[in-house]
Every structure is written in C-alpha cells, then in structure tokens.
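Field: COMPLEX_INPUT
Field: COMPONENT_COUNT = two
Field: RESIDUE_TOTAL = 953
Field: MODE = joint
Values follow.
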Amino acid sequence: MKTWDAIVIGGGHNGLVNACYLQRAGLDVLVVEKNAWVGGAATSRELTPGFLYSNCSYVCSLFRPEIMRDLELPRFGLQVISYEGGAVFTRDGDYLANYRDHDAHRREFARFSARDAEAYDRYARDVTRQCRFIQPLLMRTAPDPTSLRPRDIGELMYLGRKFAGLGAEEMALTLRFWTMSISDFLDEYFETDVIKANFALSGIIGTALGPMSPGTAYVLLHHYMGEVDGSVGAWGYARGGMGAVTKALADSFRASGGTIRTEAEVDHVLVKSGKANGIVLASGEEVYGKLVVSNADVKRTFLKLVEEKELPEIFLRRVRNFKIRGSSGKVNIALDSMPEFPALPKDSPCYRGDMHFTDSVERMERAYDDWKAGKWSADPFLDMVIPTTLDPTMAAPGKHFMSCFVQYAPPKVGGRDWTDADRDGFAESVISQIAEYSPGFRDRIVHMEVRTSREIEAEVGLTEGNIFQGELTFDQLLFNRPVPGYAQYRSPVGGLYMCGSSTHPGGGVMGAPGHNAAAEILRDLKRGTKHMSPAHDVI
Amino acid sequence: MAKTARKTNASTRPPRAALQGHFRTLRLPSPLQPRIDALAKTEDWYTWAGYKAPLSLWDEELEYFTIRSQAAAFDISPMVKYRIEGADAEAFCNRVTLRDVSKLKPGRVHYTAWCDDAGHVLDDGTLFRLAPTHFRLCCQERHLPWLLDSTIGFDVMVEEETEAVAGLALQGPTSLAVLRDAGFAGVEKLKIFDLAEFPHESGMVAISRTGFTGDLGYELFVPAKLALSLWDRLFEVGRLHGIRAIGYTALNRARIEAGLIVANADFVTAEHAIRGDRLRLPDEIGLGFMVDAEKPHFNGRRTILAARANRSMKHVLVGLEIEGNIPAEHAIVYHRQKREVGLVSAAIWSPMAKRNIAIASLSRPYGDTVTDDLWVEIYAMRELKYERLMKRARIVPRPFIKLERRTANPPANV
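Field: COMPLEX_OUTPUT
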C-alpha cells in the first residue's frame, strides 16, 4: 500500500500553503478534505444560482505576498483588488467615512471633530511603528525561550534586539499595545465616539472580547499589519471571492504534482510507538504517510483526531484550556439590486468599502454584554461589504452579493445548542439593523445564508466557529501559541505537525502558519528551502 | 429596535451632514484659485496640505527671476494656520515654542519651532503677534491636538483657521512699490519682521515684512472672502512693477538660496517619524539658535539642555557648497570619499550666488568637529544613464546669499 511522504489534514488556505511548499520541495503530498470542495474558511460558493458567496472570510489583506509569489498564485488566477475605506453610519442620519486620500480622510474626521481630524497622524504613526515591529515576526518561527538550541537563542536575541531597538517610549507603547484594551488605546488619541468606534471595530473582529477588554489593542494591530501590494493596512477583495485564494492554491498544488482528496473526512490519526504514520478516514480506510500535518485547529487536532493516551497530560490540559471561543456569525445575502443608504450620497465610494452601524464603543461593549449572557447581540456589530461593487465575477450586472460579519454570537444560546429558531432570530437582528438604514432592503433579498457558530463549526470545522482558530490575546501569541513548548509547529506526537491558524502568527487568511510549518518540516527532513522566499524586508 | 427605516430626510440631519460632499473634491481649491487657474498655462499642479497648488504657472525659471527682479505673488493659503487668543496667549506660546515670546512685541513676527516633551521638533513656523493677546501660528504640518492639549492650565483658546484665512506672499524688489501703489499707506515703514493691519474693503489685511525667499518681501493675510479682491488690487497696480504669479518650484529655489529649511523635506517632523532615528532635536537641524534657555519652562527644554550638556547631539544640518554645477539633490555625503556621513536634502545651482549649493544633514562629528574632506556622490541621469560624479563639498554658512534689500530701511522704492 502507498505511503505518502506527507498527509495534510484539511484543505484550508494554511493546509494548502503547507502542502504546496512540501510538494515543491519534492515530497509526495496528499491533502484530505472532508467537504466536497477545498478552501476551509476561504471559499466562494454558488449557494443560489448566479451568485457566488464568500461565505466565511470575505476580505483580504493579511495573505503574505511572499507566498503568493513563491506559489505562483497570480498564474493560477489570484487577484486582490483594494477597496476604498468604508463608513460607520451614525444614528442621527449621518455617517463617518474612511477615505484613502489622506486629506479627504482628515476633512471627513473634521466634520465631527477638528481636534480628532488632526490626531490621526500620530495615531497612524504609532500603529505603523507597532506593525513594523511585528511584520518581520510573521514569517519566522517563534523562538522557544526555554530552549538552549543555538537557533532558538539566535531568534530570541533577534527578538530582543528588535525590542531593544525601540526607543524607551516605543518600548512602553509596545507592551501597552500588546496588553491594553482598544478602547483605552483609542482614548489616548481621540475624543469623538464615532471616530473611536470606527477604529475599535478592528480590535474586536473575531474575538470573544469587548472593546473594553484588555488585549483587544493587539487584535487591531493584527488587522493592520497586512497589505495589498505594498500598501500596508489596506484591505481588498479577492476577485472571484475568497475561494479564489484557495482555488489558486489548490491549482498550484496540483500543478506541482500534489493530490487532493475531497469528501475524505479524517476520523483519527494513526499513531504507532509515539509516531504518526497515517490517518484513518471516516469510511474506515487507512491512508499511510511518513508524516501528518493538521490544518485543523489545535483542539480539533488533539482532542478529536489523536487518542488522549498518546499525549502528555499537561499538553492536553493546555489544549483544553486554549481559548477558541465562538463570538461571531455570518449572514450572506444575495440581492437583486444595489441597496440604498439614504445617509450616503449616491456617488459615495463607501458603498464599495466596509460599512458599519455601531457608532460608539459603548454600543459595541453592550453587544458584547449580550454574548457574556449567552445571547446573540440584540444590537449587533456588523462588518458589511458588497464585493460585487468592484468584482464583476460574483453576480450578474446589477445583482449583488453582500457579506455581513456579525458580532456577537455565542457558541451556545443560554447554555444550550443553537436551534433553527435561534438562527432565524439572529438573522433578524442583522436584517432589521440594515433595514433601519436602508429602506426597502428586505425586498431586495433573493437568498440568504445564515451561519452561527453551529453552522461554521459543522461545515468548516472551526471549533465554536472561531475565525482565528484561537483568540489573539497575548497569552496565546508567539511562543505561547498554541501551547508553550509546542509553538514551533511540532507536537508531542512524532511526525505530527500543526499548520493552522492556531499556530504562530495566528488567524486571518495569511498563510504564514502553513508556510512556517512547511519550513520546520523541511528542516526536520533535512530538505532544502530554497523555493521559499525570504520574508520581505521591512525597512 | 425600530422595525421601520430610519428617517433620513435632510432637515433632520445634523449640520455636519452638509459638509459630506468634500470627497468629490480631493484637492481643495484655494480662495485664490480662480485667479491662479486663469494664469496656469503649464497646468503643473501638486498637492500642498490637501490643496491644489501650482508647481509652475508659466515657466519655472522665469518665475524664479520674477522673485529676484520684480514682484512675485505666491499663494500661501494652504499653509496651516492657528489662531491663539486669550489672556494667557503669550504665556502659552512661550510654553509651547522655543523662542522667548515675551520679547515678541505686538506687531512683530518671529520664526520659531516647537518640540514634543522629548525635545524632538514637531515643526517650524512663524508666530505672528497681531495684538497683545492674539497670535497666529503658521506652519507646514497640523498640530491641533498638541496645541489643545498644551492649553491645559492656560486661559487661552486655539482654533484652526487654515480655510478661513487666505494668505499671499508678495516677494521681490518691487514688492513694496506694488503695495504702496495699491494704497496701503504706511506699509513702507514696516521693518523686517514687522506686522501691521491695513483696511481692505470690508475688513483688514495683515501685512508683514516676512517671506521665504531671502529677498525684500511681504506676506498678506486676509479673510478668505476678501482674497480675490486683494489679489485684484495688487495686480491692477502691480502690472507697472512687473508683478507675476509663481509656483512652488521657483519659490523653492529662492528658499534654498536663503538657506531656509522645509519640514518633512529637510527634516522629519516628530509626529510623522515612524523610524525612531529620524527624530531631531532643534540643534540637530540648525534651529538651536531659537532655544532660549533663560526663559520659563518650555516643551522639550530638559532634553535639549541635557543633550547640549552631554554633547549627545547626533546630527547636524549644514549648508554645502559643491564643486561644479550639477545639483546634488538627495546625494549621499561622504568623508574621504569612503565613509557615508549624511544626505543632501535640497540642492540647486544658485543663480544669485553662481554656486552649486545644498542643504545636508550629517551625522556628528562630521559637520560638527570634522568638517574637512567631505564629498558628495551625484548620480545625474543623462539620457538613460547615470553619470556618477564624486565632488568635493565645503561647509559654508547659511543663508547662501544675503541681499541688502531684504532688510534695508527704508526699503527700495522701485
């Protein structure tokens, strides 16, 4: 029977990135995916005729350009298109826009506060400084501070030097940034509610924390450190929906000789004498591999796919306690015409960007209060985009696909599982919020897909539907992600690696975990990594 | 939660909603735009602080000579302006800026700079004392949060007035003649850095004998709605004195000859410096002369004085005279042709000095105690090939030119 050089469990973007790099290093790699399609949480699916849905992730910025180049993704059809900022609607019939043009942005803020308008530069300077500190860490394996290996010591010294290279003031800011709440952070720069809400939203997306919870400032940074073609902090739409990212990866993988098996759900990992040597599919079929890489999150991997007895007790305990809480849902809508928002001028570029209805940090925090009480937010926070305003490939002319990312949605409702009625109630909270600002909105709806943590976990396999495969709080970052001592993509089981967003540097459609894991695997195999570009310079 | 659409008819919206449409005009027109557009034969624009501004209007070289032989009108409306007013206005300005504002009498202007608490320069600019309790601060970058935060404990108000106030620089040997013939009686009495208000139509125009050219010249500030009539008043009588409108390229040559620096061109302002080593103390960009150690406490005082005492200044800004006639813009400066010691931030062939001049930032001790054997490496693109020149550079005092007419009293009445 065939033994693969490597088996990758899960055809999400990180699994595919990992598989591509391994295959290109000369390994014979198999990707197994439980769904009939690949993509994980980066998919484009035609859920109703004529409409392509980015039904999980919906915008792109973090995906590393080094990976796009190495794996020739443009050749396989990947294009990312930048969009104009977006808007936060205010309850008094106005809105606050984000414009790409620096002076238009300032004038827009000046409509609300002359002071805040001019505070943006120092805010942007400080956030940029922090992004520049983190960016070089993304495409590197985090050092193990307890190890005495020269490589770890070298990497620790690199971190230390980078940290020491900051001025005293920046050093203090860095520590504050990694630990403080986004609300406290913004209070140091701005005084206007809607302006703070406009920035705070990046601190809570995907996180089971409120804007007043410590640790959310870092989450904002995580959303800022991406780029679209060198424009750091910019976000864009993948042409053809987010599935275009994973389609390009899958095509690149196959073109280099890789094999993908869909509808092949893994039941468990075969472990023999403490070493992984294959997988058993749900069908009972055994597939053998010299090593196994899991794109699934750390809980799914070690609590469902590996027998407990194979794992050290402390490791298991830490995996169980790893925070990977469901906090969000998704409402994906097909529209037979462009919705109108009377607050926005008809020619506003904000229609092409991300739109929001939560105009104060306090409303955001109240929405989080509902989550703590085990309810979906009565007044939810929405990150709403209409990618078809820029992407003609997802719907017929004049028709539109709208993606609404929704917070907060608890993993369980009042301690019990979600029901269909709950899901409908959750959807109604979203639709009624939009309709409040967009008359006639309901009449434009052709089809709607509602995804609570229940649906996301069932289909995509993300535990509790957590989009980052684990929260991006300081206790779960760098050499503590996912578990201290196992932050270098290896696990207590020999030959079993992790490559998902549960690992450093975390979630978002970034590809860095898959890339870094491949580098570690190839190191263990004493294979070359010449096909992996060095991380782009941050100068 | 309301189940019906929110009322959004125009009458219920807040007043700020009326300003939404600004996104359609990404480059704000200056209050003088109609006159400038009419003269813009080259259609050669750039963006200055969010405004549409001309690099040239008809011929950048001839525009330069207008500054030096006639009267050149340059629109300075885009300059950022703050109104500072109140009983403690003097004490506030003294606290924020480097020079001693108690020595700045009403009706005077001084060139100054201000720093953050770490002594790093936030900007340089001009402070106009219009009245005992009324100042105007003009600068390149925006500082409202800094200024407002600094008002704590002072009886003073700070207001941004960039769009409300138009500015026009009238520079050159015949500038006084233009103003005189335009009927600004007594304007000839203004000495360098003097300031006075003159009636113009329904309001007043503040005229100061200041400028950015090292020449005889004046700056006029007027409420935006009176800007066009002021322009017409000057241009009507100015025809006989050779008045012409100019763009920034011409002005930039004149300012380099005058040895003046531009924020975020010759140094990086503290609120924009992303890289920590780009921050500058006043002494590191040639503004040490402004620092008044004797006056009451001001922002950055402790660090600046400590750096002086410890001799820990890392940089120095110098004027260079370079062999030959090829401008050394953005050239690297070397010591002994080998060691990289700095960068040229601005350079031209000076028509007035007939010398190849430059402003450069060097890492101390170069430019400070080590001043010999300096070189610049010029890469001159000529027909798709870099001609590389290594030219000797000598440190010379700024300004590179000194024109007597700039300060002569009474000013030349040509």
